[in-house]
Amino acid sequence: MTETAQTAVGHQGTAAGRGVRLPRTARRAQLLAAAQDVFVNNGYHAAAMDEIAERAGVSKPVLYQHFPGKLELYMALLESHVDELVGRVRDALASTTDNKQRVKAAVAAFYDFVDGEGQAFRMVFESDLRGEPAVAQAVERATTDSVDAITETITVDAGLDEHRARLLAVGLVGLSQVTARAWLADDRKLSKEDAVSLISNLAWRGIGGGFPLQH
Hints:
Layout (H helix, E strand, L loop, with lengths): L2 H10 L11 H23 L2 H8 L3 H7 L3 H25 L4 H16 L6 H5 L7 H26 L3 H24 L6 H19 L5
Helix pairs in contact: 1-2, 2-3, 2-5, 5-6, 5-8, 6-9, 6-10, 8-9, 9-10
Keywords: DNA-binding, Transcription, Transcription regulation
GO biological process, one term: negative regulation of DNA-templated transcription
InterPro entries: DesT_TetR_C (IPR054129), Homeodomain-like_sf (IPR009057), HTH-type_TetR-like_transc_reg (IPR050109), HTH_TetR (IPR001647), Tet_transcr_reg_TetR-rel_C_sf (IPR036271)
């Protein structure tokens, strides 16, 4: 059975995966897929390792072979989602040298993340475990690493000092994140393309109009 098929088993909540030996990386992917559903639907505190194992179609001992406890499993998922978001932002900034298109691509990175399969954004932006220092640090990294990447680009291209560039970057990240979540909560009444264009145009009028590209 392929990794994709095993992951599908985890999503369907059947026990078909019991007794099937998988490579460690494939088994880990299967367990994470099952855990994602449980954590998003129930939150951390109400999620049970029994349910995650059952949804993945494995025994609890198999689950504990890969993750010593619920927090370790949650953190593995959370860190992967933070890496995904930051990677999307960095890829967006590197995708073009046209700064207007860079702004649009950066905004779109947040919309694409929020609109992604599995509602990963809820673990990053709506975690019910922010009192846990490791979780708080990971959640904060989603913002700070995105801000750092945008700050570097603005500093180079607009010729601003780091403090001004960082404040603009914080504004762009905040605007993108908040409006993307509001768009989703409003049942996508605008197409994603229209929403991204609307917000990126708003951001560009401030960044592009006030701080032109330095040659």
